[in-house]
Design brief:
The complex is a heterodimer of chains A (396) and B (235). With 396 residues, chain A is α+β, with helices and mostly antiparallel strands. Chain A contains 14 helices and 12 strands. In chain A, helix 1 crosses helix 11 and helix 2 packs antiparallel against helix 12. Classes of the chains: A alpha+beta (396), B alpha/beta (235).
């Protein structure tokens, strides 16, 4: 028998109270871990999704809405711009790459993204790379001869179960224009994993209004200039006209992060209060347990236990209960973050990584055990100071 | 009688408790008291005569206001508290009137617990010794039982085994059978006295039981040895 086993025996002895205390610690830790992982995941997800292109040109309106819609497939759709804007950018000497994007309806909640093969091209400055897991890319077909070929993002293929060669459509009105799967992409850890890519010609062919239009519609054009010094002039030119706006994704990202920062501050305050409440609960639990067992403490002292031994037993008890709560909380927090990431991906198209192991996990666990031990300090001192004779009642 | 043959000696021991009005209440005043090694001493006296206080002082769990207490030639209150605790664990076994077993621990663990506080028994032998002691006291079938699953007689036997766990030469027992029925008390006392006699322990027991008194080497009446002026309210 050791001092540690005595502490564990005491925890076992009041199993319900110990379990409830550990559970409350686990809840608090879960909340902290899940909040941090999701906040960091959201930030990382935004950064990964926006850094490839310097400029997004779309219809006049909210810049945030344009970036969220075009790059993350979030928020409501923005109005269209005309294909001529893309042609104009393609011919611009300052532009290295211009990629047209047209966003359409969805199949089982997964958005159609019409574009050209430039969207998947590997450029030296690109962080994201598109490779096929199976099949091939769709043909860059002529507007009058759409092939209705589709390339699926990895998550789309997993969720729909579609394979190369399968045909699909949603709604009776689309039965005339079924898309054929010709390729499936490897995961990119971005909103593109949840997209259905097709050629602009196929997109316009499927869309009744676009079919009738002479100058075809687009949602936006993603732009990479040859020189970064050309960015301000491009930005200005597309903003002074009435139909279009040019947006720096990084600026929008900064705005989003500012908003997130506010939410983070509020969240940190709430988490701080939760931590205080949990520690108070632990303190009260340990304090009342120590008061209840003053006679047992006096008995141990009468058997020869030193004051420091009694202090160690209470501190170890407090430490063990917070360690158990902390570890369960870490696991629970990752579970909640995983579920949160799934919801974010399903509803917002934002891909986050809830299982990234960093300094966060050991830091939170270490802090929880330290704070838990501190919460047990006063009860431990109370136990340390227990007077033997007066607690060995009854009087004779 | 020399010091070497004495288990316990008290010289001018006083114990007072402070009262709220600034004065003290003296509950114990013993000029001289000696318990020979290997003897069997019974302390008796009315309620409030200071019997438990005297045992607590000898055990070193209460501090005297004045005087010296020697246990096997060691002046226990000259020792710093941690050393006094260790001395107590090695040299003194204490049996309480209300058993004071730890509810979360089994009978075996309650006995082993006493061995945790000193190195008198090597770690590897602790479980075996605890089991043997409990078996000698007739509890071989109750080793894993928690106190609440034991009868009161069985609980007191566990408490006796715990007091003997570190093989201390001095055993103090504070009315060990006061809360037991007559038959159980007789059985428990017989087992207790038998073990103490076999192992030549020095036993100081507070009791009014005729069986205990009959077997004693010396009987000390607190009304004779305690010269405290006011000892009616507190022990």
């Amino acid at each position: 028998m050791t001092v540690f086993t005595v502490a564990l025996k005491y925890l076992q002895g009041r199993f319900v109270a110990s379990a409830l205390t550990a559970f409350s610690i686990a809840l608090g830790v879960s909340l902290v871990i899940a909040s941090f992982l999701l906040t960091r995941g959201i930030k990382d997800g935004f950064i990964e999704g926006t850094t490839d292109y310097s400029l997004v040109v779309g219809a006049k309106g909210s810049p945030t809405q344009l970036v969220l819609n075009v790059l993350f497939r979030m928020d409501v759709a923005t109005p269209n711009i005309l294909y001529i804007t893309y042609a104009q950018l393609q011919d611009d000497a300052r532009v290295e790459v211009a990629v047209p994007v047209a966003l359409g309806d969805a199949y089982q909640g997964l958005r159609y993204v019409a574009t050209t093969d430039a969207y998947f091209a590997a450029f030296p400055w690109r962080r994201k790379s598109f490779t096929l897991a199976v099949g091939r890319f769709f043909r860059d077909d002529a507007p009058e001869q759409p092939t209705y070929e589709a390339v699926l993002g990895a998550a789309t293929a997993r969720r729909t179960g579609l394979r190369v060669g399968d045909q699909f459509y949603e709604g009776e009105e689309m039965a005339e224009y079924p898309l054929t799967v010709v390729g499936i992409l490897r995961p990119t850890q971005s909103a593109d994993d949840r997209a259905i890519f097709l050629s602009l010609a196929s997109f316009w062919g499927m869309n009744e209004i676009a079919r009738k239009m002479e100058v075809k519609p687009l949602t936006a054009v993603l732009v990479r200039p040859k020189r970064m010094s050309d960015l301000p002039s491009l930005h200005r030119e597309f903003n002074i006209v009435a139909e279009t706006q040019a947006v720096f994704p990084s600026v929008v990202l900064l705005n989003i992060f500012n908003l997130l920062g506010l939410a983070e501050e509020v969240l940190t305050m709430i988490l701080g209060i939760v931590a205080i409440v949990v520690l108070l609960y632990l303190f009260v639990s340990m304090y009342s347990a120590t008061l209840e067992r003053k006679r047992e403490i006096a008995t141990m002292r009468a058997l020869g236990a030193r004051r420091t031994t009694i202090l160690s037993i209470v501190l170890l008890e407090s430490c063990a209960i917070t360690a158990i709560g902390g570890i369960v909380g870490l696991l629970g927090g990752h579970g909640v973050a995983y579920f949160g990431a799934y919801i974010l991906a399903a509803r917002g198209g934002l891909v986050t990584h809830p299982f990234l192991i960093s300094a966060l996990q050991p830091l939170v666990l270490g802090s929880v055990i330290l704070l838990g031990t501190l919460a047990g300090l006063l009860p431990a001192v109370l136990a340390y100071r227990t007077e033997v004779a007066e607690n060995l009642a009854p009087f004779s | 009688m020399t010091h070497a043959r004495l288990a316990v000696t008290l010289h001018g021991v006083k114990k007072s408790f402070p009262l709220g009005n600034g004065s003290n209440l003296e509950v114990l005043n013993i000029g001289q008291l000696a318990l020979p090694a290997g003897s069997y001493t019974v302390l008796k006296g009315p309620s409030g005569s200071g019997k438990t206080t005297l045992l607590n002082l000898i055990a070193g769990v209460a501090v005297p206001t004045a005087g010296t207490i020697r246990v096997y030639d060691t002046e226990i209150f000259a020792l710093p508290e941690p050393q006094r605790d260790r001395f107590r664990a090695q040299h003194i076994g204490y049996v309480f009137q209300t058993f004071n077993l730890l509810a979360a621990f089994s009978a075996l663990e309650n006995v082993m617990l006493a061995m945790l506080f000193t190195h008198a028994i090597p770690k590897r032998q602790q479980r075996q010794r605890a089991g043997e002691l409990l078996s000698r006291l007739g509890l071989s079938m109750r080793l894993s039982h928690k106190p609440q699953h034991l009868s009161r007689g069985e609980q007191q036997r566990v408490a006796i085994a715990r007091a003997l766990a570190n093989n201390p030469p001095l055993i103090l027992a504070d009315e060990p059978c006061a809360s037991l029925d007559a038959n159980t008390a007789r059985e428990v006392l017989a087992a207790f006295l038998s073990v103490c006699r076999e192992e030549r322990k020095t036993l100081c027991i507070v009791s009014h039981d005729a069986t205990v008194l009959d077997a004693a080497d010396q009987i000390l009446d607190m009304t004779d040895i305690n010269r405290a002026g006011n000892r009616h309210n507190v022990t």
